[in-house]
Amino acid sequence: MSHAVNVPEHFMPARIERIEQVTPLIKVFTLAADPERFHARAGQWLDLLIPREGEPCVGGYSVVSAPRDDGRLQLAIKYADHHAATYHLHTVSEVGDEVLVTAGQGVFFFEPGMSREVVLLGAGIGVTPLMSILRLIHRDAPDVHAHLVYSVAAQHEVLFPDELAVLGEAPNIDVTLTVTREAEDWRGHTGRISHPLLESLNLSREALYYYCGSREFIEDMTTLLTQWGIPERQLKYEKWW
């Protein structure tokens, strides 16, 4: 005997339209929701609820797509067996399944008019909300200069590498990748995001600095940028814990 799931009113149905394995541990889910109800600013996150027998499970995920008006959105989700919603999405969910989502949430977002210069600092899966911002700037804000500095453990973990190569060709966008593990075939930057790396990139001190990742990464970047002389009002960060 099945029981209806009691869902809060701010959730809305969304259908999984596509599932892509884009790195060894990350899948991208394309969802379609009601365009009259679903809205998200670039950089925001949402809650996703999986209705299932027994206890439904909920996870919070950053929207990786730029804002759209047709109700479609993308989530890039890294595999985790200790997180019920994430585990279900990776191992059970199929195209055609219905889930429930909220609209975009949180104060971590960028909109044209907030600044003419933006620096995006991301580590690992923390790049997801930054991709939304970068895609928005590329599509809608040619007068905004953005520089993404993106740290991964190994080159094969870079999310959307081909798209980042294309975005980096735009006159108003720079993309810098740095790899933290030794790799013989990697010729780019190595190591974590650091003062020397930021100094070498000639970043604007007037920019808004957005950063997202683990608690340790947030603390490290806040310390680094404060020491570098960036005022607190220019620091925008998303905590994932």
Provide a short characterization of the protein structure.
This protein has 241 residues and is of the alpha/beta class. It has helices at 84-91, 128-140, 161-167, 195-200, 215-227; strands spanning 12-21, 26-33, 45-50, 57-62, 72-78, 98-101, 117-123, 145-152, 173-179, 189-190, 208-213, 235-239.
Key words describing this protein structure:
241 residues, alpha/beta, Elongation Factor Tu (Ef-tu), domain 3, Rossmann fold, 2 domains, 6-stranded antiparallel β-sheet, 6-stranded parallel β-sheet
Task: Write a structural description.
The chain is 20% helix and 32% strand. The protein is globular. The chain folds into 2 domains: 12-101, Translation factors (Elongation Factor Tu (Ef-tu), domain 3); 117-239, Rossmann fold. It has helices at 84-91, 128-140, 161-167, 195-200, 215-227; strands spanning 12-21, 26-33, 45-50, 57-62, 72-78, 98-101, 117-123, 145-152, 173-179, 189-190, 208-213, 235-239. With 241 residues, the chain is an alpha/beta fold.
SSE topology:
Blueprint: E1 12-21, E2 26-33, E3 45-50, E4 57-62, E5 72-78, H1 84-91, E6 98-101, E7 117-123, H2 128-140, E8 145-152, H3 161-167, E9 173-179, E10 189-190, H4 195-200, E11 208-213, H5 215-227, E12 235-239
Parallel strand pairs: 7-8, 7-11, 8-9, 9-10, 11-12
Antiparallel strand pairs: 1-2, 1-6, 2-5, 3-4, 3-6
Mean pLDDT across all residues, rounded?
92
Question: Which H/E pattern describes the elements?
Answer: EEEEEHEEHEHEEHEHE
Assign the CATH topology of the largest domain.
Rossmann fold
Structural class: alpha/beta
Q: What's the oligomerization state?
A: single chain
Q: Characterize the overall form.
A: globular
The low-pLDDT segments are none
How would you sum up the major sheet? 6 strands, antiparallel
Question: How many DSSP H or I helices?
Answer: 5
Fraction in helix: 10-25%
**Overall domain count:** 2
User: Termini, distance in Å?
Assistant: 36 Å
- What's the name of the CATH homologous superfamily of the largest domain? Nucleotide-binding domain of ferredoxin-NADP reductase (FNR) module
Strand arrangement, largest sheet? 4-3-6-1-2-5
Portion in beta strands? 25-35%
CATH architecture of the largest domain: 3-Layer(aba) Sandwich
The CATH class designation of the largest domain is Alpha Beta
What is the number of E strands?
Answer: 12
